[in-house]
What does this fold into?
Amino acid sequence: MQIVLNCLSLTSFYLCFALGLALVFGVMRIINFAHGEFFMIGAYVTYFCVATLAPQIGGPSAWLVGAIVAAAVTGLLGAVLYRAVVVPLADKPLAIFISTLALSYVLQTIVVQIFGPVGLSISPPLRGVVSVGGAILPASRVMVIVAAAALSTGLWIYLMRTEPGRRIRAVAQNPRGALLQGIKTRNVGNLTLIIGSGIAGICGASMGPISQISPYMGGPALWKAFIIIIVGGIGNVWGAVAAAAIFGVLDTLMSQFGGGRFLALTSAAIMLFVLSVKPSGLFGEKE
Amino acid sequence: MMGALHRDIATIIIVGLALVVGGLVGTPYILGVLIIFGMVSILVLSYRTITTMGGWSFAHVAIMGIGGYSVAIFSKAPFEVPVLVAVALGGVFAALFAAILSWPVLRTRQYYFFLSTFAAGEALRQCFIQIKEITGGTAGIAFIARPGILPDPSSAFQFLWLVAVILVLLGLFYAALDASDTGKKIKAVGEDEALSSSLGIDAWALRALGFILGSFGAGIAGGLFASYNGIMSPSDINAMLMFKIVAACVIGGTARFSGPLLGLLFLTLIEEIFRFVPEFVPMIWGALVIAAIILSQRAGGGLKLRKVINA
It folds into this structure.
């Protein structure tokens, strides 16, 4: 039971992080390297809110405010990124990729200047543990599971059941066709990047209390997310969900049974194997 | 095309001479900067060869690490291979690794290519950390010798000579490759793979060749780095160096050899100007790269870079 819970917890984190990346890629065919830094900024914004507001309004509500502000800040960053980089460089994926890579260094330096290079920790909004069937899980980890579930369900409903969501799906399937149907693809692109970046911010807010936050926390998370979206099929949001589950279970089991040091090797081997068998990923369509 | 080949050869020889002359007149500090510049020049030139096949790899620095660890391991007991031979071995191992990697990775294009090389490179770095028995874990391997072939191995100036000679030799090799039929075919594949395949060119093999030969240079540079620093550890394989290489190629353009080298010179000058506030260097580099990319798109043809970054 404990293992199942750990699997669920890790899967939730992977999912939360890869979701925004996969959404942005699926709709606009761009890879946002600064996604990891958006995640990191989300965590720092939450840290700031919790540190300043918690004495007045209490831990949980301060965290909630932090998560909302984090989503707003990273969403805004997404909008700026869209205007400043994605629009001028439309249809040049490599140029966009390198620009976002460069942006990630700019953001990292700014955060180091404001908060210092040393790791900080956010005091968890919920204390105590939850026990399910004899297994225990810290409440803040439960929060990550809840956040990931809420985010993915919310995104699913948004994409499948609402008008803007339908527009996003139309652009993802066929940008030119969508344009011919009178959809403003620019607005959709902007919206997608805002949502994707906002998800990164919320992810940072929910992961912050579990692990230490540092200006360099984006890198390792991004690396895993790249592997997840490659294995799942780049741009396929549901493929990302499946791959997150695969790696969530696999990584938990490996750490459990003493194979933790070979995690990176195994993940990369799986990725390379999937690429050799099916270059478009497990659930990706051929381009 | 002969003109272009001559220009590339001239570029290489000028850089080699400039390194040695700079080392003659410079202070010990400048000598150190020049040695690093020479070694990163090897990385940048070999990286340019990879970009000609149409893919921007993000595993270059990790592959460089293979060269570094080869020297660290083979120059010591029980192998005790001469350091320069170990450096060459490092290049071969790096090329071999690239050959193995090219099977899965070169089936991918564009986004898949840079994501999968990025992930593969990071995995390689993790392996260097985790396989402690061979690589010494995070501490790495220390006390790596300088090449015994030098009359005075401890002299930095003589090491600079060695770096300059290797840079020129490798540069001439890459220039010859660039101007050869094979090199032209690699470029053709890079520019339009479908068209090249329809003309009967084996696109996959040529892309793999570009990747393997480029990685060979990375292995050599890694070996020199390890020998110069006297230590090889996973922290030598950092994202910042990878970014420096990509940024040099972006800022300078990759059409000719002079582009990446000028880009590198520019980045190195910035690094040295701001060396009293090193924490701001990544931000300045980053801002410059974004500005260079966006301005070159706006200029619409003025800068060399435009052609490169259209990928």
Remarks:
- The longest strand of chain A covers residues 129-132.
- The radius of gyration of chain A is 19 Å.
- Chain A touches chain B through 49 residues (CB under 8 Å).
